Amino acid sequence: MNRKTVKHAFVRSLPVMVGYLVLGTGFGILLRNAGYGVLWAAAMSLLIYGGSMQYVGVGLLASGATVINTIVTTIMVNARHLFYSISMINRYKGAGKYKPYMIFALTDETYSLLCDEKVPDDIDAHLYRFLVSLFNHTYWIAGGIIGNLLGAVLPFSADGVAFSMTALFVAAFTEQWLNNKNHLPALTGILCTLVSLLIFGKENFLIPAMLMITAVLAVAGRKEVGKS
Fold first, then answer.
1. What does the alpha-carbon distance between residue 91 and residue 89 come to, in Å, rounded to a whole number?
2. Each residue of 111-146: pLDDT tens digit?
3. Cα separation of 3 and 21, whole Å?
4. Alpha-carbon distances of 2 from 125, 128, 134, 199, rounded to whole Å
5. Do residues 123 and 5 lie in contact, with contact meaning Cβ atoms separated by under 8 Å?
6. Neighbouring residues of 219: CB distance < 8 A, sequence distance ≥ 6
7. Taking a C-beta distance cutoff of 8 angstroms, is the pair 2, 121 a contact?
8. Per-residue pLDDT at 218 exceeds 60
9. Residue 82 CA: distances (Å) to CA of 29, 78, 88, 164, 169
10. Half-sphere exposure of 72 toward its Cβ, with a 13 Å CA cutoff?
11. Distance between CA 72 and CA 33 in Å, rounded?
């Protein structure tokens, strides 16, 4: 395995490590407070690997939710993945053995690192994307286990921990804004989200906003192709 590729992937994943360790720890503590031990934290972080959904999942487990209710809730919470994953189709094409795991491990933060990444010519792009996905997944699992173990021995309030994910999004957005001359995608995301929020309210704005963003960027992309 190319050491340069491993090093580049690890360095790029460091901002996510900070957020995932903190937020994963918060999840582990909440899960412990709900009466579920470290094996549950490890299994949920390994197999579900969905930050928002895992937090919601703690409540579902504690309330004894039905399978149907859990499925519907999961689809609603993670529906955004259907939209932004479309833009990764070409990048993941030809990834071979890495592809199934990369699809599973495409979280919001991993997407923010990979969507506009200019991979150096001397680095295996598919291996790089696989390693970024793997590193981020490992951070999340570690955070969940650490939090669950800490929750068993230390009194701790997890109030406000979820804000670390918002801070992580802001940092990723700022980096992409500074490193890319084309600000159309960023401005489209902001404006469509604000419009959707005003029309549909904070409980229902996400899916309409994603549909609007997808439509605008699709039209813009066709125009760019037509010009070229």
1. 6
2. 888 887 778 888 888 999 999 999 999 999 999 999
3. 24
4. 11, 10, 16, 50
5. yes
6. none
7. no
8. yes
9. 29, 8, 11, 24, 18
10. 5
11. 25
For residue 140, CA distances in Å to 148, 168, 174, 218 come to: 12, 14, 23, 33
At 52-111, the pLDDT tens digits run: 788 888 888 888 888 887 887 787 777 777 777 887 888 888 889 999 999 999 988 898
In the numeric block, which tokens belong to residue 48? 């579900």
Q: Which residue, among 136, 165, 121, has the nearest Cα to 2 in the 3D structure? A: 121
- Nearest CA among 225, 176, 48 for reference residue 190: 176
Residue 37, by phi and psi: left (phi above 0), alpha (psi -120 to 50) or beta? beta
In this structure, what are the phi and psi dihedrals at residue 113, rounded to the nearest 5 degrees? -80, -35
Amino acid at 222: R
Closest CA to 87 of 115, 129, 118, 55: 115
The residues, ordered by sequence, that sit 6+ positions from 31 with a Cβ below 8 Å of its Cβ are 40, 41, 44, 58, 144, 147, 148, 151
User: What 3-state class would DSSP assign to 180?
Assistant: coil
Nearest to 109 by CA among 145, 84, 72: 84
Check residue 154 and report its DSSP letter: S
Query: What is the identity of the amino acid at 69?
Result: N
Distance between first and last Cα of the chain: 38
Residue that the structure tokens 């499925």 belong to: 71
